[in-house]
Write a structure and sequence with these properties.
The protein is mainly alpha-helical and 137 residues long. 66% of the residues lie in helices and 10% in strands. The protein has 5 helices and 4 strands. The strands form 2 sheets. It has a two-stranded antiparallel sheet. A two-stranded antiparallel ribbon has the order 3-4. Strand 1 and strand 2 form a beta hairpin. Helix 4 packs antiparallel against helix 5. The protein starts with 7 loop residues before the first helix and ends with a helix. The mean pLDDT is 93.
Length: 137
């Protein structure tokens, strides 16, 4: 049965659940992503900036002229600013890269969870299945 063939009450409930799901996803990103006590902004522009920063760190490391320079570079303290504008100093490039990779993993988990819940809402064919997929009203 297609969604249009489902009872009006179920269709309306599914629409309401999808709206609530989208609002929750937006709020989660607006609140930022906490990694080890540092809450990083998570808007689309922020995600792109952090991706570029990770790439820049890799390139900067690769361009160091020798192993001593690479070691010095890797041990250089790194500063990152949280969602409130508070700077946090990390002990080196590796710590910053680990933070950014964990941030990316958290973003991926957020979107995977969101997509899974959205698909479960869409697939629900009864109110009970809808409640199980997204929680009762």
């Amino acid at each position: 049965m297609t969604e249009l063939q489902q009872p009006t009450e179920l269709r309306s409930a599914k629409i309401a659940r999808r709206i609530r799901l989208e609002e929750a996803a937006r709020k989660r990103l607006a609140d930022g992503i906490d990694i080890d006590g540092i809450t990083l902004a998570a808007g689309e522009v922020d995600q792109q900036a952090f991706t570029r920063l990770l790439t820049l760190l890799r390139e900067a490391h690769d361009l160091q002229p020798d192993s001593a320079a690479k070691t010095t570079f890797m041990n250089t303290p790194q500063v990152i600013t949280d969602i409130r504008g508070v700077p946090h100093t990390l002990p080196g490039v590796r710590a910053l890269r680990l933070l950014l990779v964990a941030y990316g993993a958290a973003i991926r988990e957020h979107w995977t969870t969101h997509a899974t819940r959205k698909a479960a809402i869409r697939a629900a064919s009864t109110r009970e299945e809808l409640d199980a997929a997204s929680g009762a009203d």
